[in-house]
Design goal:
single chain; alpha/beta; Metallo-beta-lactamase, Chain A; seven-stranded mixed β-sheet; six-stranded mixed β-sheet; binds zinc ion
């Protein structure tokens, strides 16, 4: 599968000269499978450019959109997604096990007046909430030939949500953009559950928003420290760790420094995990 990052900023879009290299758009990741399926993970502000790019290459194949949760930074691009306005497009929306009803509600609500001029009902694409998946993800995903392609796990995050594991041809990509490893939220899994879920993954994008010092006052906000993300990836034996959901205050130079600290932590632990900072427009072939 081919993975492209369209947005990896956390909480709030932060365009500007100091975020040019890692990018300022919020969460949106495109996964194109070997057999040409188009999967979109979250609809943050990065979705806007992805939509333009799909139209430019006339890529109107059915799209499966997987939503981790309903926080604004993961939804705000949806009303600006060109494919949603084209009658020849088919979009299947999935919000994790048993979350279809809430998904329909929160996507529709952000387009109600006076928040947005076009109501959800006026979108022209065929929109399907077919996914009735229960753990492991089935339903519409299976109907799209995903079969054992996708697994989900609850996020440890305020208001809940789901993280996803995509597998194809022996390669595994895990997506946990908003996940706090150092604090227990209601119904959230524990550290060991995430280690198990990520075991031996080829690629993991994990929330890494805070330094240890910042985490002293942000504990419980739903995001992980760099150190916890690295420790989890290390214990799970993942091959590559992409630090994700960059704090809006973080400049490119700050992020370079944090990536270097994470690499040092890994060297000290004698770990072979390859760690990098996720950046907009980065493409990874698995
Ligand atoms: Zn977020
Ligand atoms: Zn969130």
């Amino acid at each position: 599968m081919k993975i492209k990052i369209w947005g990896c900023r956390g909480s709030l879009a932060t365009p500007g000269r100091q975020t040019l290299r890692y990018g300022g758009n919020t969460t949106c990741v495109e996964v194109r499978t070997q057999d040409g399926r188009e999967i979109i993970l979250d609809a943050g502000s990065g979705l806007y450019k992805l939509g333009k790019s799909l139209v430019a290459e006339s890529a109107f194949a059915p799209v499966l959109m997987l939503f981790t949760h309903a926080h604004w930074d993961h939804l705000c691009g949806f009303p600006f997604f060109d494919l949603a306005y084209l009658p020849q497009c088919e979009i299947t929306l999935c919000g994790g096990p048993a979350a279809q009803k809430s998904l329909q509600t929160y996507l529709g609500r952000q387009m109600e007046p006076p928040y947005f001029p076009v109501p959800f009902e006026r979108l022209q694409a065929r929109i399907d909430y077919g996914c009735e998946c229960s753990r492991p993800c089935e339903g519409k995903i299976a109907a799209m030939n995903c079969g054992r392609f996708c697994r989900s796990i609850r996020l440890n995050h305020p208001n809940g949500g789901y993280g996803f594991k995509l597998q194809e041809q022996g390669k595994t990509f895990v997506f946990l953009p908003d996940n706090e490893l150092g604090f227990h939220h209601e119904n959230g899994p524990g550290f060991a559950d995430f280690v198990e879920f990520c075991r031996d993954a080829d690629l993991l994008f994990h929330d890494a928003q805070y330094t240890d010092a910042e985490y002293e006052r942000t504990r419980g906000w739903g995001h992980s420290s760099y150190a916890d993300a690295v420790r989890m990836a290390c214990e799970a034996g993942v091959k590559r760790l992409g630090l994700f959901h960059h704090d809006p205050t973080r400049t490119d130079d700050d992020l370079d420094r944090q990536v270097e600290c994470c690499r040092e932590q890994l060297r000290n632990a004698g770990s072979g995990v390859d760690c990098f900072g996720c950046a907009e427009e980065m493409v990874i072939d698995l």
